[in-house]
């Protein structure tokens, strides 16, 4: 595949044709907030709506995870309109997220913290009414716990389970792992669970 050149935030980069803007940026050290993007997934879900960027010549911001790179493209990741949309998406996600960082094992390695910091918003936001979900925590698996209250429904663990491990034991919207599925043995899970955890 041929290489093309484009400019993101005044930085000239080169990448292979066929990539999307998000991966071109991330691979060149330019951060764009994202939660649902999965490298290698042919049809991105584009569901988190965090990766808005502005492309010169386009009237509206575009989502970087579905926008293909083009020769000579000029992109701004911190344009006013793109940031406004991304902030709204982030605040909507946070409105239904039980923020309790001090007692959370993701504290300091958390994607939500990174996104909020990058967008300049608070984790506890007053813009939208707080939605307390209070859903039951699923501890039916001896290998991991599924807390639907904390889950941001990015779909990454589901994708790894289906596409990489070839199991398809969990899915959205339920997102619950259950022994009612014909799961491989515990050893298989122990060996492969790390891949699912790494995505979370
Ligand atoms: S997932 Fe992140 S934002 Fe949420 S409580 Fe844990 S550390 Fe805080
Ligand atoms: S990463 Fe683009 S919409 Fe989620």
Total beta strand runs: 5
Q: How large is the count of helical segments?
A: 5
- The CATH architecture assignment of the largest domain turns out to be Roll
For the termini, the CA-CA separation is 31 Å
Overall pLDDT confidence: 88
CATH topology (fold) name of the largest domain: Ubiquitin-like (UB roll)
Level of helix content?
Answer: 25-40%
SSE pattern, N- to C-terminal: EEHEEEHHHH
Residue runs with pLDDT of under 50 for 5 or more positions: 174-184
Number of domains: 2
Task: Walk me through the topology.
Elements: E1 3-8, E2 11-16, H1 21-27, E3 52-55, E4 62-63, E5 74-76, H2 80-95, H3 111-119, H4 156-164, H5 186-199
Parallel strand pairs: 1-5
Antiparallel strand pairs: 1-2, 3-4, 3-5
Helix pairs in contact: 2-3, 4-5
The structure holds iron/sulfur cluster (SF4) and FE2/S2 (inorganic) cluster.
Walk me through the structure.
This protein has 200 residues and is of the alpha+beta class. The protein has two domains: 1-131, Roll (Ubiquitin-like (UB roll)), CATH 3.10.20; 133-200, no CATH class. The chain is built from five helices and five strands. A five-stranded mixed beta sheet has the order 2-1-5-3-4, with helices on both faces. A hairpin with a 6-residue loop joins strand 3 (52-55) and strand 4 (62-63). The longest helix is centred in the middle third of the chain and has 16 residues, at 80-95. The structure holds iron/sulfur cluster and FE2/S2 (inorganic) cluster. Iron/sulfur cluster is lined by residues 97, 99-101, 104, 106-107, 110, 112-113, 123, 150.
């Amino acid at each position: 595949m041929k290489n093309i050149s484009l400019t993101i935030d005044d930085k000239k980069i080169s990448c292979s044709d066929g990539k999307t803007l998000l991966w071109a940026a991330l691979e060149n050290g330019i951060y764009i907030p994202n939660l649902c993007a999965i490298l290698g997934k042919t049809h991105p879900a584009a569901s988190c709506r965090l990766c808005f960027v502005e492309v010169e010549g386009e009237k509206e911001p575009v989502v970087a995870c579905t926008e293909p790179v083009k020769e000579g493209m000029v992109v701004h990741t911190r344009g006013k309109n793109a940031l406004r949309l991304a902030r709204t998406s982030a605040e909507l996600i946070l409105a239904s997220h039980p923020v309790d960082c001090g007692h959370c094992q993701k504290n300091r390695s958390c994607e939500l913290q990174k996104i909020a910091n990058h967008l300049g918003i608070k984790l506890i936001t007053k813009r939208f009414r707080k939605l307390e979900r209070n859903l039951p925590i699923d501890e039916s698996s001896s290998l991991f716990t599924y807390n639907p209250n904390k889950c941001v429904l990015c779909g990454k663990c589901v994708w790894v389970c289906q596409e990489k491990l070839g199991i398809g034991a969990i899915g959205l919207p339920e997102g619950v792992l259950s022994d009612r599925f014909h799961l491989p043995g515990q050893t298989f899970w122990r060996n492969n669970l790390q891949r699912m955890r790494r995505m979370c």
